[in-house]
TrEMBL record:
<dbReference type="InterPro" id="IPR042121">
    <property type="entry name" value="MutL_C_regsub"/>
</dbReference>
<dbReference type="Pfam" id="PF08676">
    <property type="entry name" value="MutL_C"/>
</dbReference>
<dbReference type="Pfam" id="PF01119">
    <property type="entry name" value="DNA_mis_repair"/>
</dbReference>
<keyword id="KW-0227">DNA damage</keyword>
<dbReference type="InterPro" id="IPR013507">
    <property type="entry name" value="DNA_mismatch_S5_2-like"/>
</dbReference>
<dbReference type="GO" id="GO:0016887">
    <property type="term" value="F:ATP hydrolysis activity"/>
</dbReference>
<dbReference type="InterPro" id="IPR014721">
    <property type="entry name" value="Ribsml_uS5_D2-typ_fold_subgr"/>
</dbReference>
<dbReference type="InterPro" id="IPR038973">
    <property type="entry name" value="MutL/Mlh/Pms-like"/>
</dbReference>
<dbReference type="InterPro" id="IPR014790">
    <property type="entry name" value="MutL_C"/>
</dbReference>
<dbReference type="Pfam" id="PF13589">
    <property type="entry name" value="HATPase_c_3"/>
</dbReference>
<dbReference type="GO" id="GO:0005524">
    <property type="term" value="F:ATP binding"/>
</dbReference>
<dbReference type="GO" id="GO:0030983">
    <property type="term" value="F:mismatched DNA binding"/>
</dbReference>
<dbReference type="InterPro" id="IPR042120">
    <property type="entry name" value="MutL_C_dimsub"/>
</dbReference>
<dbReference type="InterPro" id="IPR037198">
    <property type="entry name" value="MutL_C_sf"/>
</dbReference>
<protein>
    <submittedName>
        <fullName>DNA mismatch repair protein MutL</fullName>
    </submittedName>
</protein>
<dbReference type="GO" id="GO:0140664">
    <property type="term" value="F:ATP-dependent DNA damage sensor activity"/>
</dbReference>
<dbReference type="InterPro" id="IPR014762">
    <property type="entry name" value="DNA_mismatch_repair_CS"/>
</dbReference>
């Protein structure tokens, strides 16, 4: 290279904008930094108001210690912080901030105004900054504490603006981070107002359960298990939902270390493992978990947004969280033999396999039978039912399973032979042997029926409406997609700050699956980035069909098998489920010959 390179020291404003790239990713990061500053300023009340996804306007007001005029001017300079002075201070840091980067970064990419007043001062100081340049400093009126206003975020960095999502999505991010901050400081009353609407307001009474109730609703809060576990000077505490209210995403999980909100994959994993070892269900419990440990067990300075911490020993923390969660779940089930009954899981089908001798099969041959019950039942009862119903169920299953073609059902060109592993249906067709995956088949049938419905999907009215609680992120998605939910056959209306009432649901969906389906659709919607309407409908129908379809493990009698095959073969694409997996595998005469090497 012949050209000579020249090295410049970047001016302050440029380096602030670069730092802003790390600290200020989106409106939610501004909200996070400002509220953390208010928490560090020993506030007892914090109010956050936003407009249009926070892009247009964010205001955070607190009643904390405030700043002197000279500090207010210093605060917007890079690396100006009152929280540490020396590197060694980092090891014992108890404040949320310490890098002195947030205010200058935010002020460099917005129109920024700070009003602050110390308790002992009669006046407040106002500092205004536009795109990183101070435009005004003067005395002004104002309450004790600090108010920061951030308008037109990223107005001078169009590249950043392009990365922003819809207002509804940005609202969701803000709501999520505020929820977590509010949960991590139940001693502070936090109010969140979005487009002039109160989203939540926490009581600030230092009671975590009440704080959870003020955010997630009383119904959710009343169904929580408390977590409390101490070992070796490390304490795990908080709340956890019963498996009956598993959520569709991890959005409902808040983890804290010494009251600092953190992201942590391995804590999430520990919770999953503890849960799923007890209950093989999919979904994520709501969790608010705080880990309290000596400050020198962790390093908080590993990430510019301070959202991750490094533990000196992750293994120990993983094990403690696992134990704490298992203990909470076990305590809740101690009085009963039956976890399901105690945790009020709406058990639709309780599957019990038992071995018995059938009167219709030879002495040595044994059959396995499954029983379905509509409500939780004790193991004693189960044994009785098995004894009572053995003969009946067995007779029915065996008789049907061995059924010879019925006179009046000859017209079906498929002759079902039986069910294998409660999962596959075996049938004889005119041209060979068919094996059908019962779940995939039913999924295809339901999907097509809903897809082909002219206009709105046929609905069933609920005699008693279902009530569902949503957090504000979910409410935003529901509201933004009201049309989609309506066309899918769901009629939902808002009846409380977090509660929606369901009046109508698609007629092909079992009521017990409705809540799970809606939550799964919400997850799908929040993961899709500006989908085409067709794509969206396909994804939603796929979810609904998959949830509503009979599962592997469901025992079917011969009538059900016949109905399923008839419906399947009247669809246009019987060979695949809506996800594209095979629903039918066929062995023609040639295939069979080949396999038996009969050439
Ligand atoms: P950091 O929080 O890392 O110190 P910031 O840029 O976020 O850096 O804030 C700079 C300084 O401004 C803080 O150290 C604090 O002294 C002061 N400050 C910011 N916000 C507030 C507030 N709401 N109340 C009182 N002081 C504040
Ligand atoms: Mg800060």
């Amino acid at each position: 290279m012949s050209e000579k390179l020249t090295i410049h020291v970047l001016d302050e404003n440029t380096s602030n904008k670069i730092a802003a790239g790390e600290v200020v990713e989106r409106p939610a990061s501004v909200v996070k930094e400002l509220v953390e500053n208010s928490i560090d300023a020993h506030s007892s009340k914090i109010e956050v108001e936003i407009c249009d996804g926070g892009v247009k306007f964010i205001r955070v007001s607190d009643d904390g210690i405030g700043m002197a005029t000279v500090d207010a001017k210093l605060a917007i300079l890079r690396h100006a912080t009152s929280k540490i002075q020396f590197v060694d201070d980092l090891a014992q840091i108890s404040s949320l901030g310490f890098r002195g980067e947030a205010l200058p970064s935010i002020a460099s990419v917005s129109r920024f105004s700070l009003t602050t007043r110390l308790h002992k001062e009669p006046f407040a100081t106002l500092v205004e900054v536009q795109g990183g340049k101070i435009t005004e400093t003067r005395e002004s009126g104002g309450n004790v504490g600090t108010t920061i206003t951030v308008s037109d975020l990223f107005y001078n960095t169009p590249a950043r603006q392009k990365f922003l999502k819809t207002n509804a999505t940005e609202n969701g991010y803000i709501s999520t981070i505020l929820t977590k901050l509010a949960l991590s400081h139940p001693e502070i009353s936090l109010r969140f107002i979005n487009n002039n609407k109160l989203v939540f307001s926490t009581p600030g009474t230092n009671d975590l359960a009440n704080t959870i109730a003020s955010i997630y609703g009383h119904k959710t809060a009343s169904e929580l298990l408390s977590v409390s576990y101490v070992d070796n000077g490390i304490e795990i505490s908080g709340f956890l939902s019963k498996p009956s209210i598993l959520k569709s995403s991890r959005n409902w999980q808040t983890f804290m270390v010494n009251s600092r909100v953190i992201q942590s994959r391995f804590i999430a994993k520990a919770i999953d493992s503890a849960y799923h070892s007890l209950l093989p269900k999919t979904g994520y419990p709501l969790a608010v978990i705080n880990i309290t440990l000596p400050q020198d067990y962790i390093d908080v300075n590993v990430h510019p947004q301070k959202s991750e911490v490094k533990f000196s020993n992750e293994q120990i923390i993983y094990r403690l969280v696992y134990k704490a969660i298992s203990k909470a779940l076990k305590e809740a089930t101690q009085d009963h033999q039956n976890i399901a009954a105690n945790l009020e899981i709406p058990v639709k089908k309780l599957h019990i396999n038992t071995t018995f001798n059938s009167p219709r099969v030879s002495q040595e041959q044994q059959q396995t039978v499954s029983l379905w019950r509509d409500e939780p039942i004790s193991f004693g009862t189960v044994q009785k039912i098995i004894q009572e119903e053995n003969s009946i169920v067995c007779y029915d299953t065996v008789a049907d399973g061995m059924a010879l073609p019925d006179e009046n059902e000859q017209q079906l060109s498929f002759q079902p032979l039986g069910q294998i592993e409660d999962c596959y249906i075996v049938a004889r067709g005119e041209d060979g042997l068919y094996i059908i995956d019962q779940h995939a088949a039913h999924e295809r049938i339901l999907y097509d029926r809903m897809y082909n419905a002219a206009g709105r999907i046929p609905v069933q009215q609920l005699l008693t409406p279902l009530f569902m609680e949503f957090d504000s992120t979910e409410l935003n998605i529901v509201e933004a997609n009201a049309e989609v939910f309506h066309s899918l056959g769901f009629t939902l209306d808002l009846v409380g700050p977090n509660t929606m009432r369901l009046l109508e649901v698609p007629s092909d969906i079992p009521i017990s699956e409705v809540e799970a389906i809606i939550r799964e659709i919400l997850t799908t919607l929040s993961n899709m980035q500006s989908p085409a309407p067709g794509e969206l409908r396909h994804a939603c129908l796929q979810t609904a069909a998959c949830r509503a379809a009979i599962k592997a493990g469901d025992t079917l009698n011969m009538r059900q098998i016949k109905a399923l095959l008839e419906d399947l073969f009247s669809t246009e694409l019987p060979y695949n489920c809506p996800h594209g997996r095979p629903a039918i595998i066929k062995f023609g005469a040639k295939d069979l010959a080949k396999m038996f090497k009969r050439t």
